[in-house]
């Protein structure tokens, strides 16, 4: 049986796909981690606003009120910066996913070529077997 000519390229494509998958998983983990941080900031903002309302009902000075408002503004800024980081990481993840998809296409193409090669080789073997059987059956038999 003849060797598949593109076996080395198939191996390279598989290796590239695995590396692309690792990069994609890393990018996804960073993106999801950043999303988790934003969720924490959002939860803290909700809790801090609730604390502001509780303190406001009991009475507070203008300075305390201003401090609460300044801190909430800082939390809003942190949330905005974190959202921008999430957006950046999402773009990076999508780029890595697209790179992985391209590698996957190459692997599939080489695998299809390999399958065609194996089918063609199998057909050659079947034809050779048939020819040998035909030759054997057409020989005169000794009596």
SSE layout:
Elements: H1 7-58, H2 62-138
Helix pairs in contact: 1-2
TL;DR?
By secondary structure, this protein is an all-alpha fold.
Number of strands: 0
Parts with pLDDT < 50 across at least 5 consecutive residues? none
Shape: rod-shaped
What is the CA-based Rg, rounded?
33 Å
Beta-strand percentage? under 5%
User: Helix proportion of residues, in percent?
Assistant: over 70%
The helix/strand order is: HH
Largest sheet: none
Q: State the distance separating the first and last CA atoms.
A: 37 Å
Count every helix, treating DSSP H or I runs of 4 or more residues as helices: 2
The average pLDDT score comes to 92
Oligomer: single chain
SS-derived structural category: mainly alpha
Essential attributes:
143 residues, 2 helices
Descriptive account of the structure:
The protein is an all-alpha fold and 143 residues long. The chain has 2 helices and no strands. It has helices spanning 7-58, 62-138. Helix 1 packs antiparallel against helix 2. The chain is rod-shaped, with a radius of gyration of 33 Å. The two termini are 37 Å apart. The model has no long low-confidence stretch (mean pLDDT 92).
């Amino acid at each position: 049986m003849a060797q598949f000519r593109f076996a080395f390229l198939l191996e390279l494509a598989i290796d590239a796909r695995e590396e692309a998958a690792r990069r994609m998983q890393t990018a996804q983990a960073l993106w999801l981690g950043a999303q988790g941080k934003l969720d924490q900031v959002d939860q803290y903002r909700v809790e801090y606003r609730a604390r502001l309302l509780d303190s406001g009902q009991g009475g507070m000075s203008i300075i305390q009120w201003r401090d609460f408002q300044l801190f909430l503004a800082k939390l809003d800024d942190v949330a905005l910066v974190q959202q921008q980081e999430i957006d950046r990481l999402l773009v990076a993840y999508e780029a890595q996913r697209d790179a992985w998809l391209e590698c996957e296409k190459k692997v599939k193409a080489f695998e299809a070529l390999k399958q065609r090669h194996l089918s063609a080789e199998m057909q050659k073997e079947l034809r050779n077997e048939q020819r040998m059987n035909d030759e054997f059956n057409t020989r005169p038999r000794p009596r």
